[in-house]
Write a structure and sequence with these properties.
- The complex is a heterodimer of chains A (274) and B (191).
- Chain A has 274 residues and is an alpha/beta fold.
- Chain A folds into 2 domains: 67 residues, no CATH class; 191 residues, 3-Layer(aba) Sandwich (Rossmann fold), CATH 3.40.50.
- Chain A contains 9 helices and 10 strands.
- A 7-stranded mixed beta sheet of chain A has the order 6-2-1-7-8-10-9. A 3-stranded antiparallel beta sheet of chain A has the order 3-5-4.
- In chain A, strand 9 and strand 10 form a beta hairpin.
- In chain A, helix 1 runs parallel beside helix 3.
- In chain A, 44% of the residues are buried.
- Chain B has a single domain, classed as Methylesterase CheB, C-terminal domain (Rossmann fold).
- Helices cover 30% and strands 21% of the residues of chain B.
- Chain B is built from 6 helices and 9 strands; from the N terminus they run E-H-E-H-E-E-E-E-H-E-H-E-H-E-H.
- In chain B, strand 8, helix 5 and strand 9 form a beta-alpha-beta unit.
- The longest helix of chain B has 13 residues.
- Chain B is globular, with a radius of gyration of 15 Å.
- The interface between A and B is medium-sized, with 23 and 23 residues.
């Protein structure tokens, strides 16, 4: 329960992480962050969160390690294929009408979603006019996203998902197999800007036609969700699109009236005209 | 230590889950006052068939758990496919797409451990039939927090591995016959 010593320690640890390094997890959904912190504490070999905090405050090599426990998400390429099918069949026809496009993958983690979108936009012939922004707060995750290398044993699932998304090509056209790894073609990231950006503390940086931010908001409390959704609203071009995770919605957000349901089942929203 | 009244029930089930839950949930009375949170191992495709199945057979309200939803009494919540289900201290539900635990998402341990944290001794946890060890450390957490830990009698379970593993991890758990679980819960809820 919230008044246990451990919960007090967690509160203090998150406060310390923020004050010392400006990584702000104070408004993350607590049950999940606690689970991740327990895992970090045990795998990093600390007897208590207080001991971990002591190291964290005094040794700058500790926060990157902790960050990898707190932020890294294992995803799949074309996770929820029906979402990508909806983008392909319903959103792309709108995007086609623009001479140039900006797409933001917010919380890109290891890049699975980014490469999925990059492939989809190439299949639909929009890649040359699209600039992608892939952002995350974790520098190691950004490096992994930029590298675009995944274990080969994950490719079967990626391929299956890609096919279900209405693929026009074969996924094998986009990677080369090398010592148990799939190395994705660097042309897929020739129009990608990788950048350190926090939905918690940073501001609008460009005007987007599509923002895809899936399974990120579920980790935020309501206050933080409202901040992030407000940021998305302010970042969208007129009638731009926002895609969320299959179990996320704008229903309870104070910004809900700024969006309309574009595809209710796939959690794709469209910015309202002001 | 005086026991606090039970405020919530958590259930984990895997192989054989539907048959076992059919013996429990439809037998629970319409005025059952507690929320019932359930993780069943289901394949990660998007349509969870459990909700419509049990909606048609139960007197209690049955729904899929939603992120940030406030837990309501007398309601059965199933974890959605491909997401972990957790309980927050403020009595709301949370979902996560963190990696699999015990090769499962949703995982029973994730629900039971977070519920034990949120409800403390005011929780009853039950492990039903299943072919793996998920839920064993979760049930231990329920008992360690002072809650009531139960397993379906492994001798009668369709697949005994999971309740047996939970009992091994949590020896003070009560072994209950499947046919008696609904009435045991009803008695606990009104005690």
């Amino acid at each position: 329960m919230r008044d246990s010593i451990e919960d007090i320690e967690i509160e203090l640890l998150l406060e310390g992480l923020y004050q010392r390094y400006h990584y702000d997890f104070r408004h993350y959904a607590r049950a999940s962050i606690k689970r991740r912190l327990l895992q970090a504490r045990s795998q990093m070999g600390f007897a208590s969160f207080s001991a971990l905090q002591e190291r964290l405050l005094h040794d700058p090599s500790t926060p990157p390690r902790l960050l990898n426990y707190l932020t890294v998400q294992v995803s799949e390429m074309f996770r929820d294929p029906s979402y990508f099918r909806a983008l392909r069949e319903k959103v792309i026809p709108h995007l086609r009408t623009y001479p140039s496009l900006k797409v933001w993958v917010a919380g890109c983690s290891h890049g699975e979603e980014l490469y999925s979108l990059s492939i989809l936009f190439r299949e639909e012939g929009l890649d040359q006019r699209t600039l992608f922004y892939a952002t995350d707060i974790n520098p190691d995750a950004l490096k992994a996203a930029e590298a675009g290398v995944y274990p080969l044993d994950r490719i079967r699932k990626f391929t299956e998902n890609h096919q279900k998304s209405g693929a026009r090509t074969s996924l094998s056209e986009y990677y080369t197999a090398d010592y148990g790894r799939a190395v994705f073609d660097k042309s897929l990231r020739s129009q990608v800007v990788f950048s350190d950006h926090s939905l918690v503390t940073d501001a609008v940086f460009a005007e987007m036609h599509l923002i895809s931010c899936r399974n990120v908001l579920i980790y935020f409390d309501r206050t933080l969700q409202d901040r992030a959704i407000g940021l998305f609203r302010d970042s969208l071009a007129r009638k731009g699109f926002l895609g969320l995770g299959s179990k996320e919605s704008l229903r309870f957000s104070k910004h809900a009236s700024s969006f309309t349901d574009f595809d209710r089942d796939e959690k794709i929203y469209q910015g309202q005209e002001p | 230590m005086t026991r606090k009244a039970i405020e919530a029930v958590v259930i984990g089930a895997s192989a054989g889950a539907v048959q076992a839950l059919l013996k429990i949930l439809p037998a629970m009375p319409a005025d059952f006052p507690l929320p019932v949170l359930i993780v069943v191992h289901v394949p990660p495709d998007r349509d969870n068939a459990l909700v419509p199945l049990f909606q048609s057979k139960c007197q209690l309200a049955v729904k899929e758990a939603e992120d940030k939803e406030i837990i309501a009494p007398g309601t059965v919540y199933f974890a959605p496919a491909d997401y972990h289900l957790l309980v927050e201290d403020d009595g709301s539900l949370a979902l996560s797409s963190d990696e699999q635990v015990n090769h499962s998402r949703p995982a029973i341990d994730v629900l039971l451990e977070s519920a034990a944290d949120a409800f403390g001794s005011a929780l009853a946890g039950i492990i039903l039939t299943g072919a793996n060890h998920d839920g064993a450390s979760g049930l231990r957490a329920v008992a360690d927090a002072g809650g009531i830990a139960m397993v379906e009698n492994p001798g009668e379970a369709e697949v005994p591995t999971m309740p047996a593993a939970a009992l091994a991890a949590c020896p003070k758990a009560l072994t209950v016959r499947l046919d008696d679980i609904a009435s045991t819960l009803t008695r606990l809820a009104t005690a």
